[in-house]
TrEMBL record:
Organism: Methanothermobacter tenebrarum
Keyword Isomerase: yes
Binding site for substrate: 25-28, 80-83, 93-96, 120
EC number(s) on file: 5.3.1.6
Function: Catalyzes the reversible conversion of ribose-5-phosphate to ribulose 5-phosphate.
Claim: Transmembrane helix is one of the keywords in the record: no
Pathway: Carbohydrate degradation; pentose phosphate pathway; D-ribose 5-phosphate from D-ribulose 5-phosphate (non-oxidative stage): step 1/1
Source organism phylogeny: Archaea, Methanobacteriati, Methanobacteriota, Methanomada group, Methanobacteria
Annotated protein name in UniProt: Ribose-5-phosphate isomerase A
Record field: catalytic activity: aldehydo-D-ribose 5-phosphate = D-ribulose 5-phosphate
A Pfam family matched in the record: Rib_5-P_isom_A
Keyword entries, A-Z: Isomerase
Subunit structure comment from the entry: Homodimer. Homotetramer.
Length: 220
C-alpha cells in the first residue's frame, strides 16, 4: 500500500470550490497535486493554487491547475509534506531544499495541513536541519553552526558537480545537532546568523497532521 498516496488523495478530497490552495513540495505533495489536478479535470473543481517550488509549479502546470501567487492572494489552506514530525507537532522540512518558500506559504495560510506516512513520526526531531544560506556567507555560517554544536555539510547536487543551488539561487547547509530539545529556540537562533535565509524547523503554525498508516488514516 502506498501510504503517501493514500493520505494525499484523502486530503485532496477536502479541497473546496473557491479556495486558494498552497501546494507543498516533495513526493507526498506530488500525489496531492495530482489528485487536485484530477478533480479539476473531472469535477470542474474551481480553485487557485500557490506553488512552493518549481517542482510544484511544473506539476501544477502539467495538471492545468490555475496558478496565482501570494503577492496577489491570501491562502486558505496549504498542504505540504514533512521529513519529521515530533510529538508536539514541530516539523523538520527541507529534504527537497524548498523549505524557505514552503515556510512563507505554509505559515501564511489560514489552515496548514501536513500530510505524512507514519515513518516520519518521531519523539524528538533528530535529522540534520537544512539551512538555506546566501552562497557568499556559507563558510562563516558553517563556522557559526559548528560553534553552536552542529556537524555541517554543504549539500551537493546530484545533477551537476558542486553544490545544490536552491530555487532562490542559494546553498543548503545540512546542520546535524543530534536530537533537538527546543525546536522553537533553535529555529530562531539559526535564523539569527547573518547570511541565513531560512531553516527547516517549523515550530509553529501547524493546524492538522494527517498520517497514512497500514491500518488507515489517522489525525494527530
Ligand atoms: O520539505 C520538503 C521539501 O523541501 C518535503 O515536504 C519533505 O522533504 C517531505 O518530502 P516527501 O514527501 O518526499 O517525503
Amino acid at each position: 500500500m502506498n501510504l503517501k498516496k493514500m493520505v494525499a488523495y484523502k486530503v485532496a478530497e477536502e479541497i473546496k470550490d473557491g479556495q486558494v490552495v498552497g501546494l507543498g513540495t516533495g513526493s507526498t505533495a506530488r500525489y496531492f497535486i495530482e489528485r487536485v489536478g484530477m478533480r479539476i479535470q473531472k469535477e470542474e473543481l474551481d480553485i487557485l493554487a500557490v506553488p512552493t517550488s518549481y517542482q510544484s509549479l511544473f506539476l501544477a502546470r502539467d495538471w492545468e491547475i490555475p496558478i496565482t501567487s501570494i503577492t496577489q492572494h491570501d491562502i486558505d489552506v496549504a498542504v505540504d509534506g514533512a521529513d519529521e514530525v515530533d510529538k508536539d507537532l514541530n516539523l523538520l522540512k527541507g529534504g527537497g531544499a524548498a523549505h524557505t518558500k514552503e515556510k512563507i506559504i505554509d505559515y501564511s495560510a489560514s489552515e496548514f495541513i501536513v500530510i505524512i506516512d507514519d515513518s516520519k513520526l518521531t519523539d524528538k526531531l533528530e535529522r540534520p536541519v537544512p539551512v538555506e544560506v546566501i552562497p557568499t556567507s556559507s563558510r562563516l555560517v558553517c563556522e557559526e553552526l559548528n560553534s553552536m554544536g552542529a556537524k555541517v555539510k554543504i549539500r551537493m547536487s546530484d545533477a551537476k558537480d558542486g553544490p545544490l543551488i536552491t530555487d532562490n539561487g542559494n546553498f543548503i547547509i545540512d546542520a546535524d545537532f543530534g536530537s533537538i530539545d527546543d525546536p522553537s529556540k533553535l529555529e530562531y537562533e539559526i535564523n539569527n546568523i547573518p547570511g541565513v535565509l531560512e531553516n527547516g524547523i517549523f515550530s509553529r503554525g501547524v493546524d492538522r497532521v494527517i498520517v497514512g498508516t497500514k491500518d488507515g488514516i489517522m489525525e494527530l
